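Hello again,

I reread your note about wanting to compare the complex against the isolated chains. To keep things tidy I'm splitting this into two emails, and this first one only covers the full assembly. Below are the input lines as submitted, including protein chains and any nucleic acid or small-molecule components. They are followed by the predicted structure of everything together. The single-chain runs will come separately.
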Amino acid sequence: MSFLQKYLKGWRFRETSPSLEVGDVVDVFVAESNGATEGHVYIGDTHLIVEGAGPETVEKQVRVRVTEFDGTTSTGRGEFLEVVGESSYTS
Amino acid sequence: MSTENGGPGESDPSESFTQGTEDDEPRISFYGGRGMSAFPIAFFILWAVAQTALWRISDTGGLVVGILLGLIFGMFFVRGSWKTYANTIFEGMTQPVAVTAIVAWIWAGMFAELLQDGGFVDGLVWLADVGGIGATLFPAATFVLAALFTTGIGTGYGSAIAFVTLFFPAGLLLGANPILLFGAILSGSIFGDNLAPVSDTTIVSAVTQDADIGGVVASRFKYVIIAAIIAFGGYLVAGQFMGGLEIGGDAQELLVAQSEPIGLIHLVSMGVVIGAAVAGRHIVEAISWGIVVAAVSGLTLGLLSLGDIVMFNAPEDAPLAEPLEFLPILTIVEDPDAVNVDGSLINGAAGFFELAILVLLIIAAAQIMIRGGAFQAILDWSIENLATNVRNAELTMVGSAALINAVITINTAAEVAIGPYISKIGERFNLNGYRRANILDAQTAALGYIFPWSGGVLAGFTAMQDLPGEYDWLTADMLATPIEVVPFVFQGWLLVAVFVVAAITGFGREYVIDRESEEVARL
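Full-complex prediction:
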């Protein structure tokens, strides 16, 4: 990204519930996990249930492939691929 | 993202400093429940409020004692062995966040001092003088020049002192309103404190949110400039309506005495640091280039001597002092108290030594709170009651950062303390590091220069107290008071307002899926 692009990036109004496409691979933080194998990811108010993201992935950044997405309710499901990063603060 | 913290399951070279845990239970157990793990931080906040807000003592050393006592008293509430508590202090202090911030500060401090000693402000005084600015325009011009100066040197406190000393009396003589002038100086300090890559608060905001400093600077420009354009208009309009005092002196004479056009060369030094940082160079590399450019240009243009940059003041009886006294960096001093190493580099770096210790201890106390469970309790409560969706989460981040900075005078310390909370709330909604850092630093910079007990206001007001002794015509009743200036710190109020609007409307919001902040390169 060029010098100027860095300054111009983000001059827009970003929605609270961003859309995803089936097949997208995204690196996101897991907010919480209710069961042994399902994690919950919030991208803004978009809610993704990630299969395979158990409690050990909570507050970690994981790579997820989107498998289902409903644009009207901004909810979907995804498949856990791997852990790719930590939170800024390890708890 | 930082992956070198050592995740669960990784073997750690030192079993004393285990990083990361999969346990749901807090690792340190406290009498009185997990809330008691917040004791060291809570004690420190109360100490900081009493010391800095109630008793107006802006002394970082005092805050160090406050956090030390908090950590000691907190230990008495630990159930069982105190060893884990003690080890957690080390665990916190060895987090990359602290070390990265401290290293960047020390470099930034050396650069800032070189610019100050190299006559940067004198160049700006020259600009004001040749511009032939009148009373009504002077506050707006002061705002712009103070903003430029602070963006170069990074420290808003230093800028408030320099501008109160030089621009405030000149403005009074011109007939500008003293309250508006002081407000404009503080507004300029906020602008630079928020935007400069060498600003201590910019550095903390970036490293606590795992973002690169150059990217943070570029991404926050949009918020800062919107607030600044409105603030500039505000000073133009207010300058028309708020009259000054009839003193009848010659303002130009005062300005000319401090005017040195060649000082503007440091716009180049400043540009080098900003350009290199935003281009993605390591912050240490970017500032090092700035130091080289500032030193070389200062030396070649006669703004600085080698002795100004570094000077060894040796005692008379030192074995090789006399034969080498011809060196421009060596002076023999008679007074034993004057024996030291002096100059821009040491003074600039030393300015951050106390703050470095303070930050290490605050991060240690924050780690106790994380390991003891109080942090999670506050986070759970916030998520349940405040940050219920992304808009509310951002408003919560704005509000919490604003609140802690409003009550703790030294804004860098407040920023370090609230950094983990902002990070966790933001990460939950996958807001990227730039957005989190920008929300955090805008409130930190703004609230650090608005209230009568804010560090920036105190720094400027203290410098103002010396003015009546310096100028015969200037009396104490001409000065602006910290209370009066509160509504006129336009940049501060507007910056907070911009972020409230940005949180509500989504202006500038970026998720990690839009763009990931680059990691602050570790050492």
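For quick reference: Residues 22-83 of chain A form a domain with the OB fold (Dihydrolipoamide Acetyltransferase, E2P) fold (CATH 2.40.50.140).

B.
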